[in-house]
Amino acid sequence: MKAWLLAGLFLASPVLAQENPLQPSQTWNDLRESVVGLSAEPPLDPATLDLDAPTRAHDAAIVPIRLTQPSDAAPLTGLTLVIDENPAPVAAEYSFGPALMPLDFEIRVRVDAYSDIRAIGDRADGSKVMAGRFVKASGGCSAPAGKDMAAVESSMGQMRWKTATADGRTIGTLMIRHPMFSGLQRDQVTLLNIPANFIDKLQVRQGDELLFSMQAGISVSEDPVFRFAFDPNGQPITVHAEDLDGHVWDRTFAANS
């Protein structure tokens, strides 16, 4: 409980604008088309999409990322989050419902080496826009898990949901217990590699209306937390999550819980 509250407070704190713009990246030049499927460089346009992240991460396994849009920005239908120097650069792919616009969305990721972190947003007309920061962090993908295996098994799939109000918008925070094993970590008792197992599919709705969905890789942090502004419709919040081991969790929360 305490860890979840601290995580929520950590994400809720405003991320100050940093002097850490994207850096020239040969890695990005190599993977932009072959991995991300982009034939052209998306434009940087903070009037449409911005990404905030710390210049130097306090913990490479829990790096806060905040994606925002101005109130008059063109809405996004989806977004791909890329961490250039991570072993699997595509951290996650998101689809967004209209209720999340304009976007104000926070997550935590692992960063394995000094790297650009970039978000490529999808506009409704099919065009792309990019935002990003350069973050100094290392070792996040192989950092030891925070709990022993028995604790992991007993709590996996537990969820919490809470709502608040900030700047005239409703803020939802979803917290999920899951180790999000990257496949690069070792069991601290046996010293054997822990097989990869992470939530790769997540869908959050209010009633029948999609808030967001996520297809994730190894870079989403342990015990993932999602904090986002949305326009409530009064319907219950439903969460559907699946991990690589075939576990499936479904939870329903009252809209104002």
Automatic annotation (TrEMBL):
Domain Ig-like SoxY: 47-141
Keyword Signal: yes
The keyword Transferase appears for this protein: no
Pfam families: SoxY, SoxZ
InterPro entries recorded: Fuse-rel_SoxYZ, Ig-like_fold, Ig_E-set, SoxY, SoxY_sf, SoxZ_dom
Ranges of residues in domain Sulphur oxidation protein SoxZ: 163-252
Superkingdom per UniProt: Bacteria
Entry protein name: Sulfur-oxidizing protein SoxY
UniProt signal peptide: 1-17
Keywords: Signal
